[in-house]
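Assemble and predict.
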Amino acid sequence: MSTPVDAEQAWNDLQRIRVPQERVYDEIERSASGGTGAAYATAAIMWVFLVGQGLDPPLWGVLLSLAVYVALLSAVAVICGRRSRMRLHHSRCNRRMSATLVAGALVTGGTTLLSGHLAEGLEPMAAGLIQATASTAAFLLFIGPARRWAADSVRVGGRAGR
Amino acid sequence: MSIPAGFDELIHPATRLSVVALLAATEWADFAFVRDSLSLSDSALSKQLHTLEEAGYLEIHKEGGGRKRRTKVRLTGRGRAAFDGHVAALRAIVDGATAAQAGRAADGGPGTDATGAEPRQHHHAEAGR
């Protein structure tokens, strides 16, 4: 049985495969550079949560606000998921994307702890406001460039033939 | 030359190959996204998707109703394996031809073009995924 394609056609097919996959990477980059609504919504929810924590609520208050915080973040994630037109396959996710996630948590968490420590001497309300504002600002400053940086790596990784 | 293992006649046609290549890079994709990315009509894409669905290469899920109705397309494990096998087969064909051409060049045979084969081999690593 002879092969149904010659080398030239096989080569053209391999090139053809790249075109739709580039469209996927375009969509990932478009989502990373746009979609600021979710970042602002997350930042606003985080700000309110941290201000609430600054008021030194009782344990039940902490747990209740934590539950509401997680529920609201989940709602944002669900809404974003519904709006997206595709999801990247997990095999295309790379170390840079994981590193961005960890770095984001470290930057935001670190800023929260540091600003909380620095504002310790102030009144609880003022300390909470400073801590929340500093943490939210750090999150917003980090998230935009980090998402674009991570999205760029998807195309590079795809071209390298992971 | 024999057919390399993994060569899949079902996903070999150009449109179907493009559809499967796009879906291979995603967990799932919206019907509209696939259609727009590949510049296909609704009917042309539907036809290809149903062919692939019947073969068990992909799953089609319809969500919501009315104006919010969405159709999500997902490549199955079988479809992903078939695509990977097909890409490997295409690479084997190209590699086989490149090796044969290099062999003829080394022998000094007629009609050899070793310089022509080199850039193709160089770019080969970038292709296909």
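The domain at 14-124 of chain B is CATH 1.10.10.10 (Arc Repressor Mutant, subunit A).
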